[in-house]
Amino acid sequence: MAATLQKIGKGMAYTGAGILGAVALYLGTSFILSRIPVGTRTPPTEGTIEAYILSNGVHTDIVLPVRTSQIDWSEFIPYTDTPASDTTMRYVGFGWGDKGFYLDTPTWADLKASTAFEAMFWLSSSAMHTTFYHEPSEGPDCVRIYLKPTDYIRLIEFIKTSFRYDTQGRVQHIAGHSYGRYDAFYEAKRVYNLFYTCNTWANDGLKVANQKAALWTPFDSGIFYQYQ
To answer: TM spans, by residue (predicted)?
Structure first.
C-alpha cells in the first residue's frame, strides 16, 4: 500500500512539474515574441484615417470611425443592434474572442472552469463584440493610430472576414446580449485557443494594416508595449 501511494505521489509530482513547465514555457515564449516589433507607426498626414487601439486591461479592441469614404460601418452593423440605438456615435470598436467568455463571463467573478478549459483547448466557438463610442480618450490603455487608405481597406477586409454570415450574406447578431447600452455581439469565425486569443486577433489586424505590432502575443500588454 505504501509503495502504491508513493508511486501515485511521484506521478502527481511529475504531472505538476510538467504543467508548471508548460506554463513557464508559454509565458516565456509570449514575453519574448511580444517584445519583437513588426511594422511601423504611420505618421498623421493628409488622407490618413484616425483610429485607436483600446484595452480594458485584458482585451484589445480596434476602434475605427463609423463613416469614411472606404466604408460606413453602420450599414454593416446597424446602431439598432445596440440597446441605445444612438446614431450620434462616431466610432465603433471591434473585438474578436471566445463566445463563452464574452456571453457567460461579464466579470472575472463569473468565470467557470469549464468555460476557461473550452476556450483554451479549441472546444468553443467565437464571437465578435462591437461597441460604439463618441470618441475614445488617449491614455495608457488607448493609443491613437493613423491608417493609410490602402492599409485601411486591408483592415476592413480582415475584420469583415472574421464575422460569420447567414445564408443571405448578413452578419448574425446575437440578440439579447450586451454589456451596456452601446454594444452588440455577433457570430464569428475561427476558434479561440491558447495560441490565438482576442489579443492575437487584434495584433494580426494591426499587422494586416501595416501598423506597429508584436511578432506574436496572446496578451494586450504585448501590443501596447510596442506603443510605449
So the answer is: 12-33
